[in-house]
Specification:
Largest sheet: 6 strands, parallel
Distance between the termini: 30 Å
Number of helices: 9
Number of domains: 1
Strand content: 5-15%
Helix content: 40-55%
Bound molecules: 3-methylbut-3-enyl trihydrogen diphosphate, magnesium ion
CATH topology: Undecaprenyl pyrophosphate synthetase
């Protein structure tokens, strides 16, 4: 039985997030420019989006450019921004054909105006689609987002819209860029790094983590299936005991039956 056949369709995660890392090392291994690694990375994105759509995943968040990535050499940033526009424009037709809605999280105001404009066009054109929501994290970092949320809450508290004792996790979440998106059940990071690099820190409180040594340009649908399968074998306890989880599962089966 291949990996795809082993996946339980009843247990597909609603939201998968990916830190797509290793493009530069992929290129270095071949003695070519880092930007070539980013170009090749787009193929892996296409394959992953296809696989996610077929599996019926509702949200796929891809970390494409972090706040800290603005510190990279200017030519690399420029190449990434160009690649972004080119890829989004090229894939727009596929998004429509496959009912994919494109959206973003991050501080888009930092993006070059052309990238910003083209991206907005694609977001608008796909806004009525109801299949997979593809979320590109662009000029995104979790600390930026949490500080922005804190600032807005502080302003609304000062103006009297919010009372300090109303501030809880639920309210706080509504101020994050992911307010309309459920927390990811699974986070994948490629390239053998075991860190989160300022990505969705609030949202991954109970997310299952999957790390693979594969460099992003080499990432395939089989590896994506493998990560889903791995996730399906985990017991998510959310602070409860294993026995409590088992008994609540039995109760819900009894209710359904
Ligand atoms: C991930 O690959 C893509 C971005 C961060 C934009 P890297 O460019 O970080 O590749 P490595 O980590 O240097 O190999
Ligand atoms: C994380 O990768 C950001 C993206 C994948 C866009 P980095 O390559 O920037 O992260 P670090 O520097 O290795 O932590
Ligand atoms: Mg990297």
């Amino acid at each position: 039985m291949n990996v795809r056949e082993k996946i339980n369709q009843e247990m597909i995660p609603v939201h998968v997030a990916i830190i797509m890392d290793g493009n530069g090392r992929w290129a270095r291994k071949r003695g070519i420019a880092r930007t070539m690694g980013h170009e090749k990375g787009v193929d892996a994105v296409r394959e992953t989006v296809e696989a996610a759509t077929e599996l019926g995943i509702k949200y796929l968040t891809l970390y494409a450019f972090s706040t800290e990535n603005w510190n990279r050499p200017k030519y690399e940033i420029a190449a990434l921004m160009k690649l972004l526009v080119r890829s989004v424009n090229k894939e727009k037709k596929t998004f429509q054909e496959n009912n994919i809605r494109l959206t973003t999280i991050g501080d888009l105001s930092n993006l070059p105006s052309r990238s910003h404009r083209e991206l907005h066009k694609a977001i608008e054109e796909t806004s009525a689609n109801t299949g997979l929501t593809l979320i590109l994290a662009l000029s995104y970092s979790s600390r930026w987002e949490i500080i922005e949320a804190a600032r807005k809450i502080a302003q609304q508290t000062l103006s009297g819209t919010i009372k300090p004792d109303q501030i809880n996790a639920e309210l706080f979440s509504t101020f994050l860029t992911t307010s309309s998106i459920p927390d990811p059940e699974l986070l994948i990071r490629t390239s053998g790094e075991f860190r989160v690099s300022n990505f969705l820190l609030w949202q991954i409180a109970y997310t299952e983590l999957y790390f693979t040594p594969t460099l992003w340009p080499d990432f395939t649908r089989e590896e994506f299936y493998q990560a889903i399968l791995d996730y399906q074998g985990r017991e998510r306890r959310f602070g409860f005991t294993s026995e409590q989880i088992e008994s609540s599962k039995k109760k819900s089966t009894t209710k359904i039956g």
